[in-house]
Target: Cytochrome C oxidase subunit I
Amino acid sequence: MPPQDPSAKTPRTPGAPHTDAPVGDRIDARTRRGRLQMLVLLLVCASPVIASYLMYYVVKPTGGSTNYGTLIDPQRPMPAVQIANERDESVPLASMRGKWLLVTTDPAACDEACAKKLFMIRQIRAGQGQDRERIVPVWLIQDKGAVDERLSAAYNEPYAGVRFLRMDAAAVRQWLPADAGARAEDTIFLVDPLGNLMMRFPKDPDPAKINGDLKKLLKYSRIG
Model:
């Protein structure tokens, strides 16, 4: 039998996969496919969050703006500070992540305007029906003063769900930006479940319009 030429290619069986590509090239191709599959998986997992923000911030109905509140740009993440809960336990502010937060702030000596905001955020939460469990109304108390027991009885109870938390006044002002010519105490803020301060409502806000903003966010978002 005549000796075979070492450079000659081995005949390929009909229907068998072509394997003439160098081993290194085949490994590189598998690596690229694996990375592409991982990227697609990450995009699929993140799509609910991405879609909710695109629908709310980008897609606007004919005739004007899609939201009543003012969007905070850039968003402000929760500062790394401690707060005191109802049992006077020190906990990180970041422990409040995971829900949509309706935030108002005032000293413990809550005046009529303060009580009106507490009533408003309680009613807005209750008005969300089955989605109300996704929302936590929060009163950030700026000092260590005593809170009127009537306020606790009316708002800081299981069904109303308003959390009475204490946070240093300077940290409050640094995190919650006031509107031009106003104070942080004049309004209500919205924090998303990722811990970003994302919206500020005007002084003496219309609760029906806040309710409308929340309904749209809860409809488009699966987080929180």
